[in-house]
Amino acid sequence: MDDWDILKTHEAAINKILSSGYQTLIGKHALILKQGMQYISHVNGLKILDAGSNHGVLSLVASRYCTEVVGVEHGQEGHNLGLKLLEYFQKAGVSEYNTERVRLINCRIGDIDEKFEGVMAYNVLYHLSPKELDRMTEIISQCSKVIVQSRKRSKSGVSDLHKPDLIIKYLSRMGFRCEVEEPNSPRPIILGSKT
Predict the structure, then answer these.
(1) From CA 57, how far away is CA 81, in angstroms rounded?
(2) Which residue, 165, 161, 163, is CA-closest to 140?
(3) CA of 40: how far to CAs of 1, 108, 110, 126, in Å?
(4) Is 189 helix (H, G, I), strand (E, B) or coil?
(5) How many domains does the chain have?
(6) Predicted structure pTM score
(7) CA pair distance 40, 61, nearest whole angstrom
(8) 177 forms bridges with which residues in the sheet?
(9) How far apart are CA 74 and CA 55, in angstroms?
(10) Using an 8 Å Cβ cutoff, are 97 and 60 in contact?
(11) What is the pLDDT of residues 93-147, one digit of tens each?
């Protein structure tokens, strides 16, 4: 069973948790989640940072593939929803996901003091302050694989790192070879690998 089907099986419970906050599984984040799930295997077998993990669904899905997942979300509401989702999946005993591999932390990227082998950054780079982007650059430069979801247009953000071509230049300067998946999507995915 693929990850989307697993989540759809638990959709009613997930939506009950998420609707206590501000969203539903099939709501405005459906495209981000569906695309994200398709490419998580790119960081298979690695300790990863899920930067801007929001409600933690992609961190949970990554636990199927990664040795350790650290989801970082600075928004208290998103973080709290992530903890509730994690607790639900622990109690439900969904065997596909190893919830013990997931740590959700409520802090800013600039406050992270760990090393990672991979990074997932779904629609987050352009929201980072210059200090946070410096820290993110340090983290990414030490990694062997990254997944970055971009967007062709941004309504807000601190930087232009929502544009796929700028993200590719940013990652290439750190030695990543990049591939763009779904280039015609409003939110293309960039997969970066070091040789």
Answers:
(1) 10
(2) 161
(3) 15, 22, 24, 21
(4) strand
(5) 1
(6) 0.91
(7) 8
(8) 193
(9) 11
(10) yes
(11) 888 999 999 999 999 999 999 999 999 999 899 888 899 999 999 999 999 999 9
**Among residues 57, 41, 50, 190, which one has the least CA distance to residue 124?**
50
Q: Identify the CATH number of the domain in which residue 132 sits.
A: 3.40.50.150
Q: How many CB atoms lie within 10 A of CB 178?
A: 17
Task: Say how far apart CA 191 and CA 36 lie, in whole Å.
Answer: 11
pLDDT higher than 70, residue 154: no
DSSP state of 25: T
**Residues 168-186 pLDDT 10s:** 999 999 999 999 998 888 8
Rounded Cα–Cα distance for residues 118 and 116 (Å): 6
Integer Cα distance of 78 and 65 in angstroms = 23
Sheet arrangement for strand 118-122: 102-105, 68-72, 47-51, 118-122, 145-149, 189-193, 177-181
Residues constituting the chain = 195
Domain that holds residue 63: 3-193
